[in-house]
Amino acid sequence: MKMLRFRSPSIRSLDQEVLCTIRLLDDSEISCSIQRDTKGQFLLDHVCNHYNLLERDYFGIRYVDPEKQRHWLEPNKPVVRQMKSAHQPYTMCFRLKFYPNEPMKIREELTRYLLYLQLKRDIYHGRLLCPFAEAAYLGACIIQAELGDYDPEEHPSDYIRDFKLFPKHSLKLERKIMEIHKNELRGQCTSFAELNMLQRAHSLETYGVDPHPCKVTLGGFQSDCEV
């Protein structure tokens, strides 16, 4: 992992520097040291420059507070002030913040790929809810994008079992995913399979929905829910 160090215009001693680790959408990480007055926009630009990403407005940096609540890092405020209750080194995540209304019109292939990675996460973590048929098709698109065409000499009978596609999935769903992968998606290149996944995911009601845990009190009783 390459470490980059950035300095603000004012000269500060090393004990004023703060280490930040940012987890990317493919679960890799990049790290950098910042000054205590460095603002959030600097970290977002750092990640976008790492990717050479042009369409930056869709993305943001997210962190989790000690109460396990997720927040977006505000670009115009110092990072340290926003992370004041967190332990160093700071750990944050680069995530899609604004889901495009028409993902098929995204200009850059890299942006589409990052959206694909975000939707894979949304499916696996149960944020993008799908009926059985849609789940099977989305899963098959992911398998096609990751493995290419089905090859009986390379792919055993349970070849998708190790893929983390959904929070829970049945043998019936696995079989349907393999059926679609073998018979309907043959010949699709990686980028086309990813594009098909985006198009189908975009049609689901929970596309772009980001649930947050909360507590509701009714009649003196408190219960957990998500909004």
TrEMBL record:
Gene3D superfamilies associated with the record: 1.20.80.10, Phosphatidylinositol 3-kinase Catalytic Subunit, Chain A, domain 1 (3.10.20.90)
GO biological processes: actomyosin structure organization
Transmembrane spans: none
A GO CC term assigned to this protein in UniProt: cytoskeleton
SUPFAM superfamilies linked: Second domain of FERM (SSF47031), Ubiquitin-like (SSF54236)
Chain ranges of the FERM domain: 18-227
Domain of life: Eukaryota
Protein name: FERM domain-containing protein
